[in-house]
Amino acid sequence: MLSLLLCCSFGCSQKSSAVAFQDTAIEDDEVPVDKMDMLLNDDFFDEGKVAEEIYYDPLEPMNRVFFEFNDKLYYWFLSPLNTAYTAILPWDIRFSIGNFVNNLAAPIRLVNNLLQLKIMDAGVEISRFLINSTLGVFGFGDPAMLEFGLAPREEDFGQTLGYWGVGEGVYLCVPIIGPSNVRDLVGFTADAYTHPMVYYIDELYVSAGYYAGSRVNLLSLNPEVYEDLKKYSLDPYVSMRQVYLEYRRKKIDDNPMQRRSDNEL
Amino acid sequence: MIRKPLVFLLVCFVIFCAHVAVASSSPTDSLRPTLEGVIDVIRDPNLAGVDHKKVRREKVMAIATRGFDFTEMSKRALGAAWRDLSQEERQYFEELFTKLLENAYIGKLEGYSGQEIVYQDERIKGNRAAVATIVKSSDTAPFSVSYVMLQNGSDWLVYDLNIEGVSFLRNYSEQFKSILRKDKFAGLVKILEEKNETFEKEESN
Q: Out of A129, A164, A209, B127, which could bridge B151 as a Cys pair, Cβ 3.0 to 4.6 Å?
């Protein structure tokens, strides 16, 4: 199943990367384009030039159905559940649970930093894990950030694949999980195997329960994100797709070369 | 003999450069008073609360209109479709779009407190510029906001915001494109009108 998905992703990657790169005109052997200059490359209104599609969404009708499903799931189930959850647990406790969940996912970030040859960042992740698991009492606190100023280095397998040039493939709106694409869904599945949870209790429902719980907790810490998106947009499906694609692209684009040029500024 | 024209040219060049430097302010200099002005109004205790909402919004919009280019935003958000519109249609669309932004984002800004804006860098390319900032606040992790600006005389006006890599204008542009494909301009206008109405209803409640 996984290899099938991978094949599918590679198959689509050529098509989507061709579409994506027309927009930004990056040559393979070129020095990475400066992020700020990228902002000024948005010539999508230049006279006589029709804006290019920068996403690949042939499954839009199906995706829209799942988008509606997730929307209903949110308003009928998640939102009331979140209200109750927020009422029962004070913010401090929910915040600590968030820290715990984050700390437990450190191996995912570590592995993916290593896979992207980000050795320094991998080191930061190890330090963070050691500090937070001990001084932070099993990860419920985040002294690594508060006392040592070490921010987590967010990397997942979807980003690793993107780093090595794997294209996004078809855009997907997945039931329960939300916006994704073939590459990131493969990444999501692969990351599940790097999570220590799987090795403690190898039961699907436990993992699913842990995932659901961590998502509800995350929602309780950022309750307004989805509702704001709905509120400000005229076509929330398109808005979410655009946010997801641009946000993921930015996260993948932070390779060390670029970071160095950022520091020189 | 040969040197003199060179010196003359050099002097001309220096004067020209100095003139350019004096005539146009930097993008950051244009942006700063706008952002600070908006924050001052929102934090002003004399303008706080529901009672002063109308005055407060008017003040924020007065500052925003000086610092943001809503015509350029509308033009870019519609893309190719803008060209086919009549003058009246363009004007009406700009009005609706500006109203939507006012309704949606000032309300959001009002909820924020204790934010600090750190100006990081600016870049100029032709008549456009980008200013990168980091927003630090007590309740969220710091995030990057870049302002994309267009030169207007000696000033620079904002037409796009890029938050953590996500372009605000591009987001609307994609939505408009999708709506225009199905419902044409008349349909888009209707959706915008309805959206603005929902905000106004919510506020009167």
A: B127
